[in-house]
Amino acid sequence: MQKTILITGGAGFIGSHVIRLFINKYPDYKIVNLDALTYAGNLENLEDISSKDNYRFEKGDITDAELVNTLFKKYAFDGVIHLAAESHVDRSISDPGTFIKTNILGTVNLLNAARNFWKDNFENKRFYHISTDEVYGSLGNEGFFSETTAYDPRSPYSASKASSDHLVRAYLHTYKLPVVITNCSNNYGPNQFPEKLIPLAINNIKHNKPIPIYGKGENIRDWLYVIDHANAVDLVFHKGKNGETYNIGGNNERTNIALIHKLCEIADRKLGRKPGVSSKLITFVKDRAGHDLRYAIDSSKIQNELGWKPSVTFDEGIEKTIEWYLQNEGWMNRIIDGSYEKYYENQYEKR
Ligand code: NAD
Ligand code: DAU
Predict the structure, then answer these.
(1) Do 211 and 166 lie in a common domain?
(2) What average pLDDT does this structure show over 76-99?
(3) What is the pLDDT of residues 102-119, one digit of tens each?
């Protein structure tokens, strides 16, 4: 069946992997990528598919309601996969307003356009909102986030994502808009902007720069390879049930310090350094304000109901990831220009 799908935020990290998967797997679909190309958007992430017949790029901002409505009229979308967001917790602490605007108002614009354009005839239509496990707050040493865990967001980023999730559900209950939501754990893999822990650490190891670890490095994240997230998005978009939420996670919990030691160990081997050399770069810095201790996802619902499971182990995924960053130095260098260096200087204070 032919479909025209709006994917927002497709020039970012996860969006670019979702677009690549859909473009290659569904040649009969038309995929329209709406992205404002903020500091995090990079068309280089899509170079290999950008000339395909079933791909269109629209540069634009989801907070611009008129533009969003115009695109619905122009393309008559059957579905929306909404990834565009401000995504970095540290930036939300220094500048919450941008997160409120993009993550909440931008989502409302898309919901309104879908509702108005589809005019209550929702057959074969779907609005898929991509969210995060951070909406559930922070875990202690035990337990997992499930789909029924109460929301308890603690950063401006997670509060803005929680708010957008509530609005998506409100449009389901009030207007019967056919929505589906997924809440995913930390992704890693190629093309991630180097403000996030893993690409930042790999780049610093390569250039013998300090690897900044917040606090004591005891915080725990549940890591998932980005292509396994993209596969889950494909499955939920096509097989998920309207009105449902699915949690997606890697079942790969690591303390930050253990993760960084692992990166250092692999990098030593790949860079021909003596074992232990890279880990000397580890530097403990002032903690993130309100730093959530632990995230861990119970993904049994998507596994049991839709048959999803990760395709790679953490050891396989992290090897591929480090290899990709070491092989794609040009991609990294073109990102790390003057403005990013300035952000870096402001962000890290020694403890
Ligand atoms: P990213 O920061 O790498 O990419 C975000 C993209 O959205 C960029 O291309 C950017 O240009 C675009 N964008 C930002 N503001 C926009 C606006 N106003 N209008 C149009 N485009 C805009 O983010 P990511 O890590 O790929 O995350 C994508 C989505 O997945 C987000 O919704 C995020 O909350 C969610 N998520 C991320 C993770 C993760 O580990 N990275 C985990 C779970 C959920
Ligand atoms: O859980 C899903 C979320 O994962 C997504 O919703 C977010 O968009 C994504 O950015 C990510 O959020 P985190 O805050 O967990 O990711 P980040 O890479 O920023 O940090 C991972 C952990 O590493 C966290 O405990 C903070 C710590 N950290 C991070 C940076 C950037 C450091 O110790 N040093 C650093 O320099």
Answers:
(1) no
(2) 98
(3) 999 999 999 999 999 998
Kindly report the protein residue whose alpha carbon is nearest to atom 30 of ligand 2: 197
Same domain, yes or no, for 35 and 171?
yes
Domain membership of residue 299 (yes or no) is no
Specify if 297 maps to a domain. no
Q: How far apart are CA 228 and CA 317, in angstroms?
A: 10
Average pLDDT of every residue of the chain = 96
- Please report, for the domain that includes residue 178, its CATH number: 3.40.50.720
Over residues 229-279, the pLDDT tens digits come to: 999 999 999 999 999 999 999 999 999 999 999 999 999 999 999 999 999
**Total domains in the fold of the chain:** 2
Confirm whether 39 is a catalytic residue: no
Q: How far apart are CA 72 and CA 66, in angstroms?
A: 10
Q: Which of 277, 276, 272 has the alpha carbon at shortest distance from 326? A: 272
Give domain status of residue 309, yes or no: no
User: Domain of 278: which CATH number?
Assistant: 3.90.25.10
Integer CA distances (angstroms), 71 to 63, 122, 177, 282, 346, in order: 13, 18, 19, 47, 38
How far does residue 350's CA lie from ligand 2's centre (Å)?
18
Q: Domain range holding 22?
A: 4-188+224-248
Compute the distance between CA of residue 254 and CA of residue 318 in angstroms, rounded to an integer.
12
Q: 159: Cβ below 6 Å to ligand 1? A: no
pLDDT value at position 32? 98
172: CA distance to ligand 2 center in Å? 31
